[in-house]
Amino acid sequence: MKAEIFRAYDIRGVYGKDILDEDARTIGLAFASYLGGEGKRVAVGWDVRRSSNSLASALIDGIVSTGANVISLGLIPTPTVYFAIIHWNLDGGVITTASHNPPAWNGFKLCKAKAMLCGWGMGLEEVKRIIDSKSFRLSSRKGIVEDARGRILAEYEDYLLNSFKGKIGSLRILIDPGNGSCSILGREILQKAGLTVDSINDYPDGGFPCRSPEPTEESLSVLRGKVVDGGYDFGVGYDGDCDRALFVDDEGNVIRGDVLLALFVKHFLRNKPGEKIVYEVSCSKLVEEVARENRVIPVVSRVGHAFVLDRMMSEKAIFGGEISSHLYFGEIYGLDDAVFATLKVAQLLTSTGGKLSRLVAELPKYELLKKDYEVPDEVKFRVVKGLVGVFEKEGLKTVTLDGVRVDLEDGWFILRASNTLPQVRLIAEARNKQALEEIVRYAEARFKETLARYG
Prior knowledge:
This protein is of the alpha/beta class and 455 residues long. It has helices spanning 21-35, 52-64, 78-87, 124-133, 149-163, 186-192, 221-230, 257-268, 285-293, 305-315, 338-352, 356-361, 377-393, 433-453; strands spanning 11-14, 41-46, 69-75, 92-96, 105-111, 145-147, 172-176, 196-199, 234-238, 245-248, 254-255, 276-280, 297-301, 319-321, 327-329, 335-336, 367-374, 397-399, 404-407, 411-417, 423-430. It has three domains: 3-153, Alpha-D-Glucose-1,6-Bisphosphate, subunit A, domain 3 (Alpha-D-Glucose-1,6-Bisphosphate, Chain A, domain 3), CATH 3.40.120.10; 164-361, Alpha-D-Glucose-1,6-Bisphosphate, subunit A, domain 3 (Alpha-D-Glucose-1,6-Bisphosphate, Chain A, domain 3, 3-Layer(aba) Sandwich); 367-453, TATA-Binding Protein (2-Layer Sandwich), CATH 3.30.310.
């Protein structure tokens, strides 16, 4: 089994090249052994990718070989698996998915009790140790497999509808599931909540024929145009496994996750001083500014579900968010859930009576740029570590919670290695475009100089 498929938050690689069905069986054996084996209850679900069913079947075979029981949820959005683990008090769960990665990729998100992701430093390294040492907990009696897909879909729907009962007015929205897992249930739940919903790319297809499984400003260009032409209140594009929602306002502008988090703080926590929110280190200064204006306590986290959810739970936070548009909600066990996020935005517009574009326009203004650089997996972390030394030698203030963030007089920037792709990402922010351009030029020059040293 290739060591490089074990990443910061999950296991991920190209199916048939990096990950094979036999690897899935071994991972199932190791993860169930890690949880305790015989008698443990483990939820298993999978996304729309063409390799997911086969990988999940092999995974289940490995799990039951330890005597652990499988609660099979079938083809289902990732947040619904998280929900099942917590709602039914299970010992853990696995989602077969590569989230927003290209169609050829696949992998596994491993969860412990309370849907805490089993990331590196949070148990995944122990799962790998079990694999390497072959110290599996095999049982003479196989565990049972229970088909619980229908039951969890019904209970999940009821939970969401009860959470928003009487809170959503008559809004028209356009959704784009992108042929991913949200096409299984998204439109139906949103309509039952009282919204008028139209959709595009709303059927499951693991080849993702209509757009990339990652919602971006570019991949949602069709959605953006249709939202404006159709006079919708807002639009939303989902990623491949439905834990991420990228919103489009009534004027066709894409709204980042950190901007939405600031809106939630401003309008839902206005009279709740002392409440906490969690945001990751690359989010806009806007989040901290709006939080402090409303006497809400902002808590900084590393990037990624495993780390944000851990802080959400430990801090008992109301909201959490990432710039990548993962949005987390204390009302639903601290989880990031794209359908819940859609309902929350609908509640926001209902309660304020305003347009999404106007609500965003009322926030403080910052200029922000994101740029990705292709860097091989084997050197990307070394490059970022090298940059820490470069900036410290120049006497700059650095934060190394996740990558290296540098605060400057006119703004800030962060360079961090992607945990899911062979990339280093630059995010920079300033009060005006001129300052932003100067910051980007400086950061990019130092990055390229450092990268050249590592070939």
